[in-house]
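lol ok so funny story. i was supposed to be doing the assay writeup but got distracted and ended up predicting the structure for this chain instead. priorities right. anyway since i did it might as well share w the group, maybe its usefull for someone
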Amino acid sequence: MKNNVFLAFVVLIITIACIFPMSADTQASERAISDALGRELTIPAEITGVVSTAPPTTMTLYLIAPDLMLGWNSELTPLQKKYIPKQYQSIPVVGGWFGKTDGNFETFIKLNPDIILEGRTITGDPVDVNAVEDRQSQFGDIPLITVQDTANISGYAKSISFIGDVLNKKEKSDALVAYYQTALKTVKDIVSTIPEGEKIKVYYAEGPDGLATDPSGSQHAMLIDYCGGKNVAETTITPGYGMTPVSLEQVLSWNPEVIIASDSKFASSVLTDPLWKDVPAVQSGRVYGVPVSPFSWFDRPPGTNQIPGLYWMLHTLYPEKFSTEQLKEKITEFYSSFYGVEVSATELDGLLSDVPVYE
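and the output, tada:
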């Protein structure tokens, strides 16, 4: 009898030992998170592939974990590829939901990502959750994780850290946050010494003729405001993509001392354009094309790709307060640490000159 009881006990122990390790393994393969909208989600403990629905979040994803990226939102240009390692140039283009672009759910699903990141400007309106849940239903069982987008150049740290935590890339995200916060502090400290009446007047020239712009307060012109410039555009903010049309007469009346140009051809041609000859920035030669390789330092998308632009804009407006040597040191550090490329002295000079034209 005793032998039977003992045998039954051993069988029970073996059975429990077989069952519970499997349960523990199952639990260890998943984890619970709360996204930017407060949605409780279960995601794989180890992320091996991820895609983002829009460029701002894709920029952060690329800076933190390019090895996990499964898709770009748009085709890479030759200029972008110049500073993107070859193994990432072949990542497929998936589109997404941004600007005037609508994505395709099947394209995302076929990539078989562990998770999908969705950058959103959170308003607290219930429609936010409803819109995300509707998109989640289209993606099926693939967790759609909302990330806080922001129209505030000083507000990127939270989303950087969140993505780093989700992807188990905390060391890299912490390093990016540290670089970013140092840049913010450097700029803030220097700008605080500039009297309001001595701030440089800046016009942001967009489009092939330079006659579209974004005024102060627009997410597309944040760097001007933060870096101590005075955005001269007295016009309304065009929601979304921006680029409010203006006239040359308006630009002349605003008397900008510096022009930041999004279009490389305009940046080079305006200096000899007789129609613009009376603009102070043109007379002094202070027209600067935005560095855009591999991604814009200034705008489009407004996101973490703008981080090196903090130093560039500060130097562009106030070179006597932040030198070329200081700028080069910071840009070299950023490209090495986060873009994974070593920039030569010649390449650095090219990045800091007017943007080359690629037909």
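The chain has 15 helices and eleven strands. The mean pLDDT is 90.
back to the writeup now i swear
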